[in-house]
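Session log. Operator J.P. requested a structure for one protein chain; no other inputs attached. Running the standard single-chain path with token output.
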Amino acid sequence: MKTLARELLFPLIAVIAAFVVGGILILLVGDNPIDAYRLLLGSALSWPDGIGYTLFHATPLIFTGLAVLVGFRCGLFNIGVEGQLYIAAFATAWVGIELANRSSWFLIPLCFAAAILAGALWAAIPGVLKARFGSHEVINTIMLNFIAVSLVSYFTQYYYKVPGDPILQTAMIGENAHIPRLGSFIPGLPERIPLNVAFLLALLCCVLVYLFLWRTKWGYEIRATGSNPSAAEYGGISIRKQIVVAMAVSGALAGMVGINEVLGYRYRYYDGFSDNYGFTGIAVALLGRNHPLGVIFAALLFAMLQHGGIYVDGFSENVTKDIVQVLQGIIILFVAAESFFKWLVGRARPQANQLPRVRAVTQ
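Structure written below.
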């Protein structure tokens, strides 16, 4: 626990420093940073709308943050989370449409399986290409993003869109595929807020990812591969197998975004639904130090900024919601600069350590 606290200390410092720099920028455009931050954070923490929508926006970020985390732990940069969640969301809607008349006990688990398997299979493609042919996963996943988005747009447009609908979206899924919203269980939380049981599933996935990576043999082999592939292979671990497994697990987690989007929110596939969830997940994983607990806090922070930015844009005189993108960028820059600060500390320590030795010699 102490190690985890130390790991999360620098991201916390990065967040505070980013808000300080953001406050200076707000001053430069002629606004009051205290008022802007009060509007930004206060609106995101108000009950019930602020907290409800913040948790709703955090749900896909937890899934994508975990997806990137698993790849990072294996030494892989899965930048294809965006394409994986698009494929999974469409697969979820497809099952919900084609089997709309089935019972909830059958249809909902089948939609869950469609989301998970579609994301896993799409992510396994670059995993196999890297394991078998050594092709870089970054290039492959970027290219697959374009293919995924274009592919599901084509099927939506020509096969599953309601005739005459001007919006590029599929028909509605069956009512038996809907998952409950938390407003039906939590007093004071209106059901109009789209926060649903997918949020609880996201928290459960954090626990499962932790147990998988740090409490199982398979997770140990993935982490060993990411830490030192040569040593892992020397110890009898199949590097190729771990690459494919890690990418598949990463894609499965990304695919769960479709559960939140299709089964708990829109009840259909809506083209362009992702607010860059896959790419923001990279920032969430980095800020969360590639740990499930850190991913939760980082996702909540970015969700607060995302929701609060709407109110800043509407009620602030000179500050727009672009301040959210600025703060996110500055946070990541400070997190990325950690190695530079450690290098400075490392340069300073030897000089301090030499002083007692000099005294000992002179005595």
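Operator note: The CA atoms of residues 128 and 244 lie 6 Å apart.
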